[in-house]
Amino acid sequence: MATPFTDTAPGGAHSIRPCWSCRGPAAGDAAFCETCGVIQPPGQEDHFARLGLERRFDLDAGTIDRAYFARQRQVHPDRFARRAPREAAIAESRSVSLNAAYQTLRDPLRRATYLLELAGHPIAGDGKTIADPELLAEVMERREALAEADSPEAVAAVAADARHERVSAEAALGAAFAAGDYPAARRHATRLRYLGRLAEEARRRSAMRAA
Amino acid sequence: MAYSDKVVDHYENPRNVGTLDKSANDVGTGLVGAPACGDVMKLQIKVGAGGLIEDAKFKTFGCGSAIASSSLATEWIKGKTLEEAASIRNTEIAQHLSLPPVKIHCSVLAEDAIKAAVADYRAKQPKASEAAE
Amino acid sequence: MLLQIHEPGQTPQPHEEAGVAIGIDLGTTNSVVAVATDGKAEVLRDADGRGLVPSVVAYPDTGEPVVGEAARRTLLDEPDRVVSSIKRLMGRGAKEVQALAGTLPYRIVDEASGGMVHIEVAGRRLSPVAVSADILRALKARAEAALGRSVDRAVVTVPAYFDDAARTATRDAARVAGLEVLRLVNEPTAAALAYGLDREAEGLYAVYDLGGGTFDLSILRLERGIFQVLATGGDAALGGDDFDHAVAEHFLARIGGAAPTAGEVKLTLATARLAKECLTSQEAGEWQVELANRRHPVRLDRPTLEGLIAPFVERTTEICREVMAEAGIEPAEIAGVVLVGGATRVPLVRRAVASAFGREPLADIDPDEVVALGAALQAEALTVGSDTLLLDVTPLSLGIETMGGIVEKVIPRNTPIPVSRGQEFTTYQDGQDGMLFHVVQGERETVDGCRSLARFELQGIPPMTAGAARVLVTFAVDADGLLTVSAEERTTGARQRVEVRPSYGLAEEEMVRMLRESMEHGADDMQRRLLIEARVEARRVLLALAAARSADPELLPADEGAALGEQAVRLEALLSGDDRDAIDGAVEELERRSQSFAQRRMDKAIRLALAGRSIDEVAAETPGPAA
């Protein structure tokens, strides 16, 4: 799948801010001033724009990795160890914002959570409860199966099942986003979160057994 | 500092863990979840002839505070009327267990589970009277 | 967002006048120093061709401490004067080393302040930082002798699983030894760098690093010069030393009799180490242990050795499984397993690694030297430049204690660094005007199970009802893996802010004293660094002005241009001198004089943008140097 890869963030081309070094105009969110070539502080763009990616759920890991690596190569503080201290500090802040973007977008569930936030359909946060009977009954059933699993094989079977379900839930999530159906996307994302929690618990169980 | 003794006690010796017959007409089931932390809580009540809650059971998958909150909730609602049970506030649970602020949401889960169980029981009742006719 | 802005004079030395930078593997048992030129790294050896410098220091009654092989030889005659395995105490408090007490062959002194432990050796009271500095000084001297010039900058490696306290202690030890640390690099990452560049490897690699006192397992993705750490785990108190102790205990138990003296324990440990090393190639052997002036023969065969060390080896493979599971990686996806650390020569370890990953591990680069080689490559990358890039992660979660002793994680482990993350906290009482913060590191949910890094208070919060204040606590971890925490009250206009760097409990005065003792010309060094920084800054300003002039020549009237040119020439001339104030003054003057030119350039860009033309089009029309 091809994803547009641009060096300036969408919309950034039309916003102008002064370059901190040559004090002339620098394009919105460009990493470097076109005039003097000096690194610029990170702007206010969203995580997709920071990585030069289209705002969509359907992004493959390789595309995100490549966009991230290409940008870290330019702005990582190690690249500025020989430059003026102010440039190194700015490089660090750019590297920080790239890492934040990468962490948010690389994991499908976090990417979905972020997209839902941007779209104004956030997943229930801290202190918020849900009462979706179908989903919760399924979660209850899987957690009970894990609790009752009395051999490493049985634990592994629950974990494998959860992994399998996550794959199909991700596909359903992608389809919901593609159709612009945010309530459905939110439901699938919530389910993914529960499945993730189940996998975590299964891992904890098998680690306990090993110890 | 660590969790309060009451939390630890309810966590290590949870009261009323179990399941009631979900399809029985005198049983109300509340199933709620907190997606943020991945907790899920099932709380059931069995209502006696006098309209008092004569039994309560729960099953919670979550952190210690969530388990303690639901354990305490089942203890409190036994012998109470539906109205009394539904009026229990999460703050009372949190206060009784001395839950730390970051765990307050666990008591919210318990409050919502009680309400959901009461609502489920009430929803069944018209059907029950129809069946009796 | 608050980022750690470098203090003047505290930054890595800019490239001007840059000398060579070395790579140092400061190990528990042995240390190695290496240097890289044109992407080829080389271990610096002594006259006998030995690359390993035993991390052992002997303290004679008079004169300088003796480090390395010579100190190890002293061990036999004067064991009470010798310190080894000091790395196990770096950044550690008394509570943490309780388990080690008795296994470490010197007296550990608890600090009343609750900070890092000290040790008592040959009538001296020493901090682990001071002992490590003695080792680093010897490595610096070796490098200077080998290279024939002075060396004052280094990349120093630390176990990936080292916490903030141990990292800070390591960096401070280097400072005391007169070495500026360009970067602290995690040992497995350094090993992967040396290995990956050598082999042009691509794909997922696991680095199994069993050193003398620490175990690390890191999983990295290698892709066209990028070394991305995906996950790391380990145990900062598990290593080859534990094998030696198990064997020594076995010997002592066999012999029986009265409790051995500290000196006898040291000698027995040396014998145990020798036995362990012999049994990597032979099946059995006999050695002698001297107790109460009597020699006792002791026998050991490989199956017995393996029985003694099996619990430690199992613990490492268990960590391997946990790290892979957490990263969601199956052993089959791993393209190769790199062995690091002398303890990986033990046949049982190799077998265990092979079975955990389902493949034979790679050990074609000397496991004792691979870390230093990687450090040297990174030192060259930072001073000369390179196409490779290390992307590392935080090894341990960082958090804040909240009410009830619960830890609220702010930065979870395995987060890519550098990272900065904020979290809001609020007051729990009406009118509360201060907030105490306790910064901890570790994976447990309660504070007791984590390591305490710092406590600080934010004062001057305007009185409000409980829960109304909004205090933003920001954790920033730099590329060295070092943490800075700041807190800021944001509800009212009055911003109250504090910033802390966790310290590891070495009293400030002690650090200052050590630095003063170690640096005869400390003040001069600082002046020199500030001068270099001023020059670098001046060059940046000159370059920026030149770029602006060639971008918008029409916006600069001739007389103004001439005046600017004059001032630029004046500044240029000052750069060859060493009057920092004059340079700074000339920079300020140049910036002042070019202010209106800069304003005209901004005005023009905004005018064009308002006219519906993008800055890109403007840039395309105006030839200028590319970014």
Describe the structure.
The complex is a heterotrimer of chains A (211), B (133) and C (627). Chain A is 59% helix and 3% strand. With 211 residues, chain A is mostly helical. In chain A, helix 3 packs across helix 4 (108-118), helix 4 runs antiparallel to helix 7 and helix 6 packs antiparallel against helix 7. Mean pLDDT of chain A is 86; it is low at 1-13. Chain B has helices spanning 5-12, 64-77, 82-86, 90-97, 104-132; strands at residues 27-34, 39-47, 53-61. The longest helix of chain B has 29 residues, at 104-132. Chain B is globular. Chain C folds into four domains: 21-239 and 309-391, Nucleotidyltransferase, domain 5, CATH 3.30.420; 240-308, ATPase, substrate binding domain, subdomain 4 (Actin, Chain A, domain 4); 398-510, Substrate Binding Domain Of DNAk, Chain A, domain 1, CATH 2.60.34; 522-621, Substrate Binding Domain Of Dnak, Chain:A, Domain 2. Chain C is built from 16 helices and 27 strands. Chain C is globular, with a radius of gyration of 28 Å. Mean pLDDT of chain C is 85; it is low at 1-17 and 622-627. Classes of the chains: A mainly alpha (211), B alpha+beta (133), C alpha+beta (627). Chains A and C meet through helix 2, helix 3 and helix 7 of A and helix 8, helix 10, strand 19, strand 22 and helix 12 of C.
